[in-house]
Design a protein that fits this description.
4 helices; seven-stranded mixed β-sheet; Aminopeptidase; globular; 194 residues
Length: 194
């Protein structure tokens, strides 16, 4: 999925889909697809490490919200004890992360989830998502929820649904793009609408 050339600031409509699960999965946990995999909580992650992950994973999917935050604003979020950044490592290399946000207890949000491009297509996303879901439920939330939009991976909604989430809302929202961020292309998937 490529993006158009950088542009002036823009407000772009996007279809946002909200999904939730209200009980933990009843199926067995997914086994790691490769050897040399570990998932570790980044305790007190540095802003620079977090920004690296956020951009390396999110650039192709138009993740911009956290780019607009100052270092101090971002430090307050990722340093909050109710926010947990779980980093997937493959043979010592960061491959992705799943961020759980428990600041709106009793609900937990899967705030960010994704893989670096080099690690897509190896079964790692399915494994990390399953791990994150089970890890989130260990804290006993009322529900676990996530949102995605039509600039995300074309199979995002299908993957969330297969993992046990159900759609509970969809709406068009405005995505504010800062100057220099390429205008995104829409996902070619039509499975988002239902």
């Amino acid at each position: 999925m490529g993006a158009a050339p950088p542009s002036a600031p823009a407000s772009v409509p996007t279809l946002v889909t909200y999904l939730e699960m209200t009980k933990p999965p009843a199926t067995p946990a997914i086994r790691p697809p490769l050897g040399g995999i570990e998932i570790r909580v980044a305790r007190r992650p540095t802003v620079s490490f977090y920004r690296y992950l956020y951009r390396a994973i999110g650039d192709d999917w138009t993740w911009v919200v956290r780019r607009l935050l100052s270092d101090e604003e971002l430090r307050r979020i990722i340093g909050d004890p109710a926010v947990e950044v779980n980093v997937l490592w493959v043979e010592g290399v960061p491959a992705g992360y799943a961020e759980l946000d428990r600041r709106q207890a009793p609900d937990t949000e899967l705030a960010y989830f994704g893989l670096l491009p080099e690690f897509i297509g190896r079964g790692l996303g399915r494994y990390l998502l399953d791990w994150a879901i089970r890890h989130a439920w260990r804290a006993g939330p009322r529900r676990l929820w996530v949102h995605t939009c039509d600039f995300d991976h074309p199979r995002a909604i299908a993957v969330y649904r297969k993992s046990g989430f159900r759609v509970y809302d969809q709406r068009v929202e405005q995505l504010e793009l800062p100057a220099g961020v390429p205008l995104p292309q829409r996902s070619r998937s039509q499975e988002r609408s239902g």
